[in-house]
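=== Discrete structure encoding ===
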Amino acid sequence: MVEREWREATDLKPARVWLLAVLVVAAALRFWGIEVGLDGAVRAEEAALADRVVRMMTSGDLNPHDFETPSLYLYLQLPVASVRFMAGAVAGRWSGLAQVGPGDFVLSARIVIALFGLATVWLTHQIGMRWGARHALLAAGLVAVTPLHVRAAHAGVPAMLLAFFVALAFLLSLNAAERGTSKTFAWAGGAAGLAMATDYTGASALLLPLLAAWMTHPARPSRLACAFVALGSAALAFLAAVPFAVLDLPAFLDGFARAVGPRAETARGWVGYLSLLEASLKWPATVILAAGFALGAVRAVKGPGHVRWTLLVVFPVFFLWRISGDADASGLALLPAIAFASVLIANAVVSGVSLLRRFSIPRAPRTALIVALTVAALLPPLLASIRLVRALRAPAPPSAGSLRLDDAHVAAPSQPRDPV
């Protein structure tokens, strides 16, 4: 039986109207200004990926050849680019593949990534429902307005796709722990495999189903069997999304070695990524996050809900350790941790304040405190995201020029300050 914490009546039923409002805000922030670019580091990666997609489309060679980044992102964008080409041909924009270049497909790639960003907001809500409706709504709202998440949704790079699959693996691992069947652990493992097929750091998502299997005592047929099922499903999902890992094994091994080789001297480290998290969430939400992490650590030990609390507090620590040695100029490597941080903040606000009922504090003051903390957590990142999107839409300086790839142009953005 799944352990349940005490809940207010308002936590028992999802608020669909408010969730719709959160998704509308999330969509506005992600699609507003999507046609313009970001900073140089992100724009260069985006252009290089678009170039690889175009080369696959024009040559018919589905082998990426370069495996420093896994191929799921490319295979996802390839049919989108093909549909975009056919639509342009019908509209009379071009009459052959020789007339197109990477710049013609950047916008469609960004739209796909923005949709995955919107889906990640919804997944965070579904994760938060394991604690309560108010938790879910606040967690989804935080993901919706966090500047780092908004920034990533404007770029046709794999970071948002990785965040989506990590959140999906978390949700499916929670479901597997609740149901305790090998089938549910297979689904969770498959999501983790797709995360790894997006970026090798996504292999960290395997911790979620494996930890859930180890902690689920009534797992059927056994905890060990469920763990092996999750591992096998992850391997199959990875190979389905990166088939040339087998078909072109030398190139894959070479690219993998470059990607996960010695840690970079220019890495941000723990302190750098924690500073980046604070800069994106802003200090009120960061203080609440610290309280939420402390609450989560206690609940992971004492319960109720040992499994879900353990997954919630262990994974972000492990993931932060994993990326701390990587060189990431854009800071988007932190993105998968945002959903976990948002759920921890939501728990600090809702569950933390609800503990005051033990001191006979009436419900009205507790509700007022939850509202005040919610505003304190949401308003600063929301304002920062609005400033970010407005900065992206500002006219580019004359010296910015454009980024030229082959015979296509990718519009250069203005150069706003790092929003996070």
User: Anything to note?
Assistant: The longest helix spans residues 363-392. The two ends are 42 Å apart (CA to CA). The beta strands are 402-405, 408-411. Confidence is low (pLDDT under 50) at residues 397-420.
